[in-house]
Amino acid sequence: MNDVIILGIESSCDETSVSIVKNGCTEIATVVLSQMDTHANYGGVVPEIASRMHVENITIVIEECLRKANLTMEDITAIAVTYGPGLIGSLLVGVVAASTLAYIYQKPLVPVHHIAGHIYANNLERKMEFPLIALVVSGGHTDLIYMKENYSFEKIGGTLDDAVGEAYDKVARVADIPYPGGPLVDKISHEGKDVYPLPLPLDDDTYNFSFSGLKSAVINLVHNEEQRGNTICKEDLACSFQSRVVEILSKKTMRALKEYGVNHLIVAGGVAANSGIREKLKELCEQEGVELTFPSMKYCTDNAAMIATAGYFAYQLGRRAGYDLKAKATDPLN
Amino acid sequence: MRSLLIDTSSFVMTLAILEDGKVLASFEEEIRTDMASKIVPTIELIFKNVTFKIENIDKIFVVNGPGSFTGVRVGVTVAKTIAWALKKEIVTLSSLEFLATTKIAKKNRVVAIDARRGYVYGGVYDEDLNPIMSDRYLPFSDLAPYLEEGELISRDELPGAIHPKVDIAAIVEKHKDDVSLNPHETNPNYLKLTEAEEKRIPKE
Fold first, then answer.
1. Any idea what DSSP says for residue A203?
2. Do strands A26-34 and A15-22 pair parallel, antiparallel, or not at all (unpaired)?
3. What are the Cα distances from residue B126, in Å, to A66, A203, B140?
4. Are A266 and A132 contacting, i.e. CB atoms less than 8 angstroms apart?
5. Which domains can be identified in chain A, with CATH numbers?
6. B196 to chain A, closest Cα gap in Å
7. Do the Cβ atoms of A42 and B82 come within 8 Å?
8. Which SS3 state, helix, strand or coil, does residue A314 take?
9. What is the pLDDT of residue B204?
10. Could you say which of A34, A276, B12, B158 is the most buried, measured as most Cβ atoms within 10 Å of its Cβ?
11. Mean pLDDT, residues A142-164
12. Is B201 on the interface with A (CB under 8 A)?
């Protein structure tokens, strides 16, 4: 069987990335150009600046990736691109560049959902076995997805308001923890104690999540303490907040595994890098005999290797887009 | 010389294939939504009307602004990707100069794109497309002095503006010998910082 070599393009937020992956499991080369340092000046991603930087970098990143892989476009089987969800202006640059390349080189164009990419990042670690439950946690998503087989996605729950990563960033802002807040909250939480009485968010029998109440509780706590003239211990606050987040995420995830009779869990997305979530799920999965896979740190954040990997499976299933592929800010995973 | 011209800087998408100064095939239509998804299919379509393929062109002319930020990015991304992939020459054009190819009776073309809140992207060109006032972001009222010897041209509903009828052959003729850019360095010319950048400046 001939090798299937997919060139993936990802530009849904603030990373311009191109990657070449063989047969959906072997990464040949990946280039990620992060704009994080620029957006740090503004305390968060500025969509118009992100779009501008994607245009400036797109051909450079494609060229660099091919050079690193020591391949030419002629060696590529198909081009996979993130069409959504994400920032529309950012997505457009990747989608338009991918459509142009597909047209010029007469290669199949494969549309990839960003979350499918995050999930399939795990296939670069270890071959995914089905059925499985995927917990997708990032700045834009908090989803529980049941996968009966390859490339079948059944969303069984998701966030009703803020995504978990978003909640982390907002808590960081309230507590005056610098950008990027999420990873720093995680880091200092280990130096603190769970002393603040924060509520466990949406502890019901659905698989949905809600973090706005917890976030409000943090805001109120900080304000009240300030009014009383007390200083908040950031480490303790981070620890208390993270404890609640980890508890609810792991509780609903473990219940989903049980109810769906699945013993393989994968965790994906930027917040999969969170040490609290990693430790807790590792402990619970060991107890329950569930196989647990996390992507390595470099695949947790946005990257095109995961898009090229998911793109391989989408390609094998015959999924194709025309050169009129539309970028979509929101789109259900299916 | 064979060339491809791309302009997606406004709600009118203009694409054209030229050979030795003549327009062989072109597309010029209002596209109010999803222009990004129509550009590559339309390029493919217009190449069906000529005897050569996109690989056989020598040069790409791309309008890189000012105009719709998203629109400009779409055109520039397609153009730089083609130029990089096929190792073609690439030249950028001003959207305002392109509009100034409109035939009028008066001497000067006062060209404007509505940038809202009383501001425009404006430029003034003579009948040979030489700039009298270079492209800039300015209050619409600042164009008034140029209107004595000129006519206001705009696609937008600005008071007194006539609608443009661009001359593709004329703009390509004017720039046919422009030095080619490096595709990696071919970027939009927005003429305006992002709001976030503008707000940040006074703090520093």
1. -
2. antiparallel
3. 46, 71, 19
4. yes
5. 5-120+299-316 (3.30.420.40), 130-294 (3.30.420.40)
6. 7
7. no
8. helix
9. 45
10. A276
11. 95
12. no
Burial tier of A94 (Cβ tally within 10 Å: 0-12, 13-18, 19+): buried
- Interchain contact, B69 vs A60, CB within 8 Å: no
The DSSP output letter for A191 is: T
Amino acid at residue number A180 = P
pLDDT in tens, A199-210: 999 999 999 999
Are A145 and A265 in contact by the 8 Å Cβ rule? The answer is no
- Cα distance between residue A63 and residue A6, in whole Å: 15
Nearest to A327 among B36, B187, B200 (CB): B36
Q: What is the mean pLDDT of residues B116-145?
A: 97
Instruction: Give the span between the Cα atoms of B82 and B89, in whole angstroms.
Output: 10
CA-wise closest residue to A97 among A300, A304, A270, A298? A304
Distance CA A216, CA A228 (A): 18
Q: Judge if pTM exceeds 0.90.
A: yes
Q: Find tokens 């850019």 and name the residue.
A: B181
Judge contact between A295 and A124, C-beta under 8 A. Answer: yes
Domains of chain B with bracketed CATH: 2-95+167-203 (3.30.420.40), 97-153 (3.30.420.200)
The length of chain A in residues reads: 334
Angstrom distance (rounded) from CA A217 to CA A240: 11
How far out from the chain centre does Cα A273 lie? 10
Per-residue pLDDT at A139? 86
Contact A96 B36 (CB under 8 A): yes
Nearest CA in chain B to A64: B184
pLDDT tens column, B170-203: 999 999 999 999 999 999 999 999 999 998 866 4
Contact list in B for residue A48 (CB cut-off 8 A) is 69, 194-196
- Whole-angstrom Cα distance, residue B136 to residue B121? 6
Q: Which of residues 86-145 of B touch A (CB under 8 A)?
A: 86
CA–chain centroid gap for B200, Å, is 29
Q: Which residue has the tokens 């998503």?
A: A141
Helix A88-105 and helix B69-86, axial crossing angle in degrees, nearest 10: 30
A259 Cβ contact partners less than 8 Å away, ≥ 6 residues apart: none
Per the listing, tokens 């000046």 go with A41
